[in-house]
Amino acid sequence: MKILIVDDDRINSTILNRLLARDGHSVVIASDGVAGVEVFHREQPDLVLMDIRMPRMNGYEAAREIKRLAANRFVPIIFLTAVTDEDSLVQCIDAGGDDFLTKPFNRTILQAKIDAMERIRRLHGELRRQKETVERHQGQLQQEMEIGQHLFAKIVSAGNLLDAPCLKRWTSPMSVFNGDLLVAAYNPAGGLHIMLGDFTGHGLSAAVGAMPLAEIFYEMTAQGFSLSELVEAMNAKLIAVMPTRMFCAACLIEVDYRQQSLLVWNGGLPDVLVTDKTGRVVRRLASNRLPLGVVALTREDRKMEILEMKSEHRVFLYSDGLIEAPDSEGVMFGMDRLMSHFGGDVQPDKIFDVILHSLKAFRGDTEQCDDISLLEIDCSRAGEEPPGGMPRRSEKSLPPAPWEMSFAFHAGTLKNVDPLPTVINAVMSIQAPTGHRERLYTILAELLSNALDHGLLGLDTEMKKTPSGFIEYYNQREARLNAMESGFIKLTLVHEPVVNEADGRRIGGAIRIRLQDSGPGFDYTRVQSYLEGNAGHGGRGIALIRSLCSELVYHGAGNQAEVVYQWTYQ
Amino acid sequence: MSGNISVERTEQETTINIKGRFNFEMHSQFRTAYQEDTSKGKKGRKFVIDLSGTEYIDSSALGMLLLLREEAGTNESDIEIVNAKPEIKKILETANFQRLFKIS
């Protein structure tokens, strides 16, 4: 160890020098405070022995200066003193001294004190290195968190439609990352898909799982896949990528304004509540599925609850963080307290705010221990477009060219697969008429569901006119679809460019869509007249097709429909 | 503030008692409790998870149960969850765990 002796008494420093040198220390000597500071600066010793009374600068001042110069490095200073009165000793410590040694010097005590200081010095060095390591890791972590946050924000909120007029939401993440995933997007037919997911755990690990789910949600919704197919794809993805002990409790809802229906799938989230015009809860949709990412799904697991949507309905969706939020005593907010806000004097449109207010008052300053989300769907506004209009996917625009496609879907396929996304994606990849995806989707959706529901399954649209009939319609549809053994739907699309006669430029195209089903057909004259005088639940599809297409004709017994859709090329 | 785990073993059965809060902090305790019965491909052992002293359960705890199920052989596993208080049973049922475990 390198030791600095600062003493104006040459005899003292010589004795010390000899004692220290004998123990293998290297020694540097300064004869007063000013010289002591200089030598310290130059030699960087590991320990300082400091006299108190010296010319030019006394020991207290020199000690202060040396401690200042040493900054983060721990350099023990041992004062050499003849006096042992309390005041002097306090002054030594105040000046930054770590110990003192009384004259005359005893070799054993000197050695012991130096050894003790050496131990402290080593410990100090170790602490400093650890602190530096922690700081370095913290810096790295901070950077990684920032990158993660950026990715998370981009992926999860990409095209998110939580500003849809019918939605009201509140989320309160417990850390930087929200383990509650709340996303919403429109499908090509204008149906609104909403998902609330609650991952095991919180923070980064939960957020990592949210990213693939958000991507699947947006991509498949935009392509027109159904909620069942979204559930299937998300579940498979989580099983493939997540460790066993992580899963995602989730609820998916589709608000279909055109069909006036709500589809709900609840796997592991608390009861979804549906209220009527008085704010009373008229439906509680309890979780009846396993959360996403636990086991492979059966056909039954993919099934949705279907509800007839009324404009007076409000749907409340929330994560368990809401009902499990504790107060200062550790008591949970609870389902009973939540339910007490429904059906009383509170106006239905105020319930959302009253719940939040109640939660805030209940929690007080208690630290949050889970992510909390609350979402309300106001069905009376389900038909309103979001600010800025419906989102459009940017599609590449291909010049109109002639092509033809045909498909045949048989019973075995129709039972398990919705052919619509496949058809629409085939059309978009070969022709991609910009801005027409939604309309084409709507036309094909109506044609295909007419062919399947009425042609093959023989369901009667009239049934959907009453609320009980509405549910019965979907029950029967499910049963008949399961039992279907034969039958087919054939679809042909023929595209021809439309040419400007003056200059021969291709200005657009016409798609002739012909759909044939193996069913017995139906009395389309009756359906048409029914439509003209009635805007009830059923049959509105054909009116819609009529408004979008330039031609609609039925052939045969009504089991062949032909429409022409025209588009212009920009 | 978390819970405490004790284990009883008989010839065919391992009973894991969980007292207090069954949450993410219990992860290593819980794993230690069953691991000697599932390691080296041991199968066919019955596990009883006794929640009579459990006051709280979170989603991480549900995840640990899934992990036990996997390490005990997934569909061949024989795991029974007993004596859960009503509010804890409700959480297990919301997650539909009755499809994966016997809950009684």
Structural features:
heterodimer, A: 570 residues, alpha+beta, Rossmann fold, Phosphatase 2c, domain 1, Heat Shock Protein 90, 3 domains, five-stranded parallel sheet, five-stranded antiparallel sheet, elongated, B: 104 residues, alpha/beta, Transcription Regulator spoIIAA, 33% helix, 31% strand, globular
Low-pLDDT ranges of chain B:
none
- Ends distance of chain A: 84 Å
Structural class of chain A: alpha+beta
Overall pLDDT level of chain A: 86
Tally of separate helices of chain B: 3
Largest sheet of chain A: 5 strands, parallel
CATH level-four homologous superfamily name of chain B: STAS domain
* SSE class of chain B: alpha/beta
> Approximately how much helix is present in the residues of chain B?
25-40%
How much helicity do the residues of chain A have?
Answer: 25-40%
CATH architect. name of chain B:
2-Layer Sandwich
What does the overall shape of chain A look like?
A: elongated
Looking at the structure, the CATH topology of the largest domain in chain A is Phosphatase 2c, domain 1
Oligomer: heterodimer
